[in-house]
Amino acid sequence: MAKKTARKASRQPPPPVVRALAEPRTALPETRPPAPEARPPVARRNVDKKHTINDIARLANVSKKTVSRVINESPFVREETRTRIAEIIRSTGFTPDPQARGLAFRRSYLIGLVYDNPNAPYVINVQEGALGALRRVGYELVVHPCDRNSPEFLSDIRQLVSRQKLDGMLLLPPVSENNGLADLLREISCPYIRILSAALDDPENLVQSMDRQSAAEVAEHLAKLGHTRIAMIIGPPTYRSSQERLEGFSNALADRGLTLSPDYIAEGSYTFESGAACAEMLLSRTPRPTAIFAGNDETAAGVYRTAYLRGLRIPHDLTIIGFDDSPLASRLCPSLTTMRQPIRDMGRLAAEKLIAKISRTEGPSAAASTVFPHLVVRESSGRPAS
After folding, report:
1. Which helix (H) or strand (E) holds 195?
2. How far is it, in rounded angstroms, from Cα 259 to Cα 240?
3. pTM for this model (two decimals)
4. C-alpha–C-alpha distance, residues 295 and 242, integer Å
5. Please, what is the Cα angle at 339 between 113 and 345, to 5 degrees?
6. Using one digit for the tens of pLDDT, what is the confidence trace for 100-139?
7. Most buried residue among 48, 148, 323, 383 by CB atoms closer than 10 A?
8. How would you write 119-142 as a 3-class SS string?
9. Cβ atoms of 319 and 292 closer than 8 Å
């Protein structure tokens, strides 16, 4: 009993819970956000509306086919109608839906550009010229570098045309020099234009640069300056342009009683590095040449470097002439005498001819298939010192 009593005594009741009473709150006046100021209604154009070709036809009171012809720059539309439709297209901000357009005309509106060329400025300039012409009529360019020496070259091109559903192809040299590729494209009914330095196809299928005649003009220029020890750095011998320029240059020298010695011919690859290496070999000859005709401007720039390292002055000790008239030519010091080849115009003309073939409309004539480079004389050419 004593133990139970002790346990009871040790258990104390829990302390009372004391709760503080909150002070009464003073009622605050009811507040509401101020009403927005009344604003006058603003007339808003529905800029999100996407106009269709049917809308343009309705606004111009013509058929959808006529609108399509204007978009594709067909010549079979009266100028008054063309101007009216063009103004409506501009004011509405209409742009053709490429998918709907492709379905309607069974085209992809894609053009392939195939190249295997180490001369990057050349490829870029052709590409820019082609894009300018293609985008005016709603086409885009699919640029495809390749290896023309690969065993799978032709099968890869066939797959490219099939996979991208290309409407046509632009072929740059030296790929354009492959007659097997042209045969393949004809076989699969893919229109093409070849940019070439020689007439290897029908005029309707090519844009030709007159490389042989251009090289002859360089020979005439050097002969008139009085040079007799003349060297040449050609491009890769598998390039048709290399053959055309070499033959045109050597034949023109021969016509003037001069000889292009085999010792003064070096094989480059249309690159800066090959130009420097070839110049090192040529300038080691005894007697050394007083003039070097380089295969292109990149090659000529390499010759500049070697001449500088050898302490030769341009043009007092060495005349240098390039080919292409790329932006590099006028930036070298002294500025480079070179053959100006209208590369962008060649790209534009090739694209215009291809679009005309695809749409079966009138395009550039066969006579317009030929472009004529001309010599731009700058500071790098002069009379020989001795």
Report:
1. strand 192-196
2. 22
3. 0.71
4. 8
5. 35
6. 554 444 668 899 999 998 788 889 999 999 999 998 888 9
7. 323
8. CHHHHHHHHHHHHHHHHCCCCEEE
9. yes
